[in-house]
Specification:
Layout lengths: L8 H17 L4 H5 L3 E4 L2 H22 L8 H11 L8 H19 L2 E7 L2 E7 L6 E2 L1 H4 L1 H5 L6 H12 L18
Antiparallel strand pairs: 1-2, 2-3, 3-4
Helix pairs in contact: 3-5
């Protein structure tokens, strides 16, 4: 038996369907907005925030380990020691994210990436991007998200995976090598 709509409901159902179709086909509809991404330069406050995060890790390293952030690959070992010794608890999100700022600075230095502000439907993040592209990594949360759920991260592995992910998008120099990897 075929279901029958009451006469009053038929026009209402038609109107709802019509409005739904119009909203989906209209220019600038919600479907378009979901895919919009904005990548802009860091402002003063963003740069200051990142520096404070690095300073936080430098302070922990100096006080607890007797070393400092060096802004080179030695920082991978420093971050790993912080992880292994449990110097930052999994509930200390800002400090965990500060470790990601140190990791991000290393990736910026090594690969020629640039810190940028990345905004999409999810929100606003600090990211490291291949300049003039939308190819970005999010190092601030690369370590923190894993550690917050109790994973003992291998910092060098996270670093290596990030390099592998972004390398295909780096500018090429002669002989097909990524720009900043030629000297290594």
């Amino acid at each position: 038996m075929k279901p029958v709509l009451k006469p009053v409901l038929k026009p209402m159902v038609r109107a709802v369907c019509y409005c739904l179709l119009l909203s989906l086909s209209a220019p600038g509809s919600w479907a378009d907005d979901e895919d919009k991404v904005s990548i802009t330069e860091l402002g003063w406050m963003d740069r200051n925030h990142l520096q404070k995060q690095v300073d936080t890790i430098d302070d922990i390293a100096r006080r607890q380990l007797g070393v400092q952030v060096r802004n080179n690959r030695d920082d991978l070992e420093l971050l790993q020691r912080i992880v292994n010794q449990g110097l930052i608890g999994k509930e200390e999100r800002l400090k965990l994210q500060a470790m990601g700022a140190v990791l991000g600075n290393l990736l910026v230095r090594e690969l020629g990436l640039k810190w940028m502000v990345y905004e999409d439907k999810v929100g606003r993040s600090r990211a490291i991007c291949v300049e003039a592209t939308s190819h970005c990594l999010f190092p601030v949360t690369m370590l923190s998200r894993r550690m917050e759920v109790g994973i003992l991260v291998n910092v060098r592995e996270v670093y290596t995976n990030a390099v592998e992910i972004i390398t295909p998008y780096l500018p090429k120099k002669p002989f097909g090598l990524p720009a900043l990897l030629q000297g290594h």
